[in-house]
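PROTOCOL LOG
Step 1. Enter all chains and additional molecules of the complex.
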Amino acid sequence: MAGQVPLVDYLVLDDPPHLVANECVACGARYFDRRNACASCEGTEFRPVSVPTEGEVRAFTIVTFAAPGVPVPFVASVVDCGGTSVRGNLVNIEPDPEHVRLGMKVRLTTFPIAADSEGTEAIGFGFEPLEATRV
Ligand SMILES: [Zn+2]
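Step 2. Run joint prediction.
Step 3. Record the structure below.
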């Protein structure tokens, strides 16, 4: 049976899809990768927390050179989602400095990256502008 699997394990394909971070129980630092100990306080207890799906662009880079097969240009960004920094590409936006602005409001969006021979889709995520800026 065809289905969908997230490309990264911190993407949860609920309705709506969202990201889940590992939060240090001791100090509240949040990580998307698995850690044995917190980088801030060396705490070893973590709990999963849902990350808000809307945020603000804190930093971005317009990438014009990438590995073969990766469409360019694209916009790599860091988005502040309610205090949690999330790395993701900006999508559904013209990849140029006139359209991408620091502080712009974006929201999480998901899209199929690839499908295997049984039709199972790998789902990736990115951030798109809250207000349509497409021309
Ligand atoms: Zn900690």
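Step 4. Note key features.
The chain has no helices and ten strands.
Residues 24, 26-27, 29, 38, 40-41, 43 surround zinc ion (CB under 6 Å).
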